[in-house]
Structure prediction request, 498 residues.
Amino acid sequence: MGRTHLFLVNRRNEPLPAGLRTSVEAAYRWACSDYPTLDRALIATWTEEVGRLMADRAADIQEPRRYAFAALHGKIRQHFRSGTSKEVPSGISEQLEEWAGVDEASMRQMEQRILFQEVSSKLNERDRNILGLLDQGFTSPTSVANALGISYNAAAKAIQRTKERTRAILTGKPMPRDLQEQDESA
Amino acid sequence: MRAPEPRPDSLKAYFLEANPNPERIDCPPESVVQAAAENRVGAEHPVRLHLASCSECYAEFRGYKLDWEEQRRARMRVIGWAAAAVLIIGIVGGIVAIGHSKRTQGAQQEIAQTTPPNTPSPDGDVPQKPPQNPPVAVDTNPKTDHPPDHPHSPDDGSVRLPKHTSTPTEPHKPGDPTVPANPSGPNLPIVVLPSVLFDLSKAVPVEDEGSRGRGELQGLTAATQNLTLRLPDLSGIGKYEIRLAKDKDGQNPVGSARGTASLSSGKIFVHALLKLEDVEPGNYYLVTIHDGDAVTHTYAVRVEPRSVSHLP
Prediction:
């Protein structure tokens, strides 16, 4: 289990100002919550690096919380893309490690990225917007209709089709022919 | 067959990673993202759809949502403990009160049994009943706190202003029967100023003219303006200060007003009463300053001379 205490100081080992500290700690809490499979010690290390970086540029930073979130998010993405090895490879993982420097965790990340690319390419903008509204808790056709400026009935159909298209992509099954066509406008 | 629901963590992972926007194009202020996370804006607000297309803003949204939910849980814990404490105090207090009542009744019964009625006191007087409380007169005339000339805003955004019977340039003469003794008197006639829509949603701020080109110069009138400003989409809600100035920063305003931005049908409006009677016609800058995060936008405007129809 990783450590959870943050050592937020600047390059001279002085504590960060309260405003920066609050922003950095909020970013850390978010990263721990939304990336539960990542080692907390790793997240803490990145958070401390972000804190030092923000302390160096404190005078230029207008929105410290936004900066902290973007910086930590960038470090997490960079970690996933670089595929830093943390496990001892064996079997097929060992061969992949030898060929491409990719471990099992990185393989999962690559598969996830490919899946996300497929979702983005096969779902149109309306479907992605509907998924976004569902994720934010707006599951009723009334809310979706208000958000997209369409009728209630069109929203209800659009929600159903979006779920079916998404299921088809995630399960790898072919999409039904009627779902391959664009939604009719409301 | 009904399609299964997409798993929440799959959706979350998708929106966190699939829409990188490092240049933060079209991103709203943090206050708007926070309002979305705390459910203070509805599904029709443009930020809801932006979150589905910007991973950076989505991450901020998740952070604000996490903090808000933790605060809610903490508040519920405090409320729960307070309710339990009130319940315990109530039960204990009730038990004590019942016990005291029983003891008092027992003592009274004992006194009644041992003391015969109308027994004279040692000095010969018969004890009398204590006198009743005298009746208290209650003032039933309610007073109004609302001043009669308060410029309250009806639903249509119009503003009622007190109309003085003399022109502003004439001095008030003492004892003049045409001028009410109390300028705030209830009999003062009022004039309704209609709301004027001033649309900034398509305007180009001066700070963006380099990349987006110079926008069209909008016009104001050198009079009291009951403005309904439509702000650009994704502007923050909350309190604003509106300034009219000759300089781009608005540091030396010739007129200013305050208002609160609210969302209506997916658009953001702020009402402001801007008094420009003493402003010379010409080119100015209209500066909007958001209280929450001090975000400032400046727009080139032109003040036109006042026409007769604008006189109150």
The interface with chain B takes residues 26-27, 29-30, 33-34, 63, 65-66, 69-70, 73-74, 77, 80, 112-113, 116-117, 119-120, 125, 128-129, 131-138, 143-144, 146-147, 160, 163-164, 166-167, 170 of chain A (CB under 8 Å). Chain A has nine helices and no strands. The two ends of chain A are 52 Å apart (CA to CA). Residues 74 and 181 of chain A are 36 Å apart (CA to CA).
